[in-house]
Amino acid sequence: MKVRNFSRNNDGAAAIEFAIVAPLFILILLTLVGYGIYLSVAHSVQQLAADAARASIAGLSEAERQDLANTYIHTSKISNGFLDQDKLAVRVEADAKNSNQFTVTLTYDASDLPIWALYSFAMPGKEISRYSTIRVGGV
């Protein structure tokens, strides 16, 4: 008689279901938070690359453009709290295929972002590289 009652008893089923589903839910939640932070920093790096390219258009040589881009990066007000200016590397170079263009490339070392300490699924690389190409002299 007691075995039959045991098979019909549903007490504690919700707790067992929660124990099975909760770890997966938490992993998914932490992964979403991690990717949100990563994409926010990647967007900020892209925006800085575009702004640095616009600021360096006034340079007459590649060295002067490099200096203008570096000056812009280090004097800009970065609005992303996760972005550290000291971890940004700036490279300005002429476009090999078109002499009327140059490219500003920003590389950011994202290894100090707090997302790497999260227990999550596969995360992106620890280096963010974005670039912006600008034409000299208009269309």
Keywords:
3 helices, rod-shaped, alpha+beta, three-stranded antiparallel β-sheet
Strand content: 15-25%
Number of strands: 3
Strand order, largest beta sheet? 1-2-3
**Helix coverage percent of residues?**
40-55%
**Number of domain modules:** 1
Sum up the overall morphology in one term.
rod-shaped
- Written as H for each helix and E for each strand, in order along the chain, the element string is HHHEEE
Radius of gyration: 25 Å
Explained architecture:
- The structure is a single chain.
- With 139 residues, the chain is α+β, with helices and mostly antiparallel strands.
- The chain has one domain (8-135).
- 46% of the residues lie in helices and 18% in strands.
- It has helices at 2-8, 13-55, 62-75; strands at residues 88-94, 101-109, 127-135.
- A three-stranded antiparallel sheet has the order 1-2-3.
- A hairpin with a 6-residue loop joins β1 (88-94) and β2 (101-109).
- 19% of the residues are buried.
- The mean pLDDT is 85.
